[in-house]
Specification:
This protein is of the alpha+beta class. It contains two helices and eight strands; from the N terminus they run βαββββαβββ. An eight-stranded mixed sheet has the order 2-3-4-1-5-8-7-6, with helices on one face. It is globular. It starts with a strand and ends in a 5-residue tail after the last strand.
Amino acid sequence: MKPTYFDLTVTDVAAARRFFEVVLGWRFERFPMPYEYYRIQAGPPGEPGIDGGMGAAKDAPVTGGRPTAIITIPVPDLDEVLTRVRSSNGMIVEDNMPIRGIGWYATCAEPGGLLFGLIQADAGVR
């Protein structure tokens, strides 16, 4: 399963947004979440690579207030993969949460603590 998304948590969203717009040419679009969050178009359509998102570290308890970068991997059955994470001595850091219009998401950690995201697509999630 290949990563399809990256998620950045930063200490200053406005400053980071300006930085990445100037340095990398990324485009940001506000995404409807209960906190300030932006979808990132990291290159023109058709260019190889993945897009992502960015929000404040203070709004992502999983980061402990620290800046982080988390990759997200799509899975066909989130519950089944979470069972495998647990049985392989990994941790579920944020369990199966809905993302409106996108699907079901969970943040996990491998046994050494590296965070990663899993997502099961479901456009009907409200």
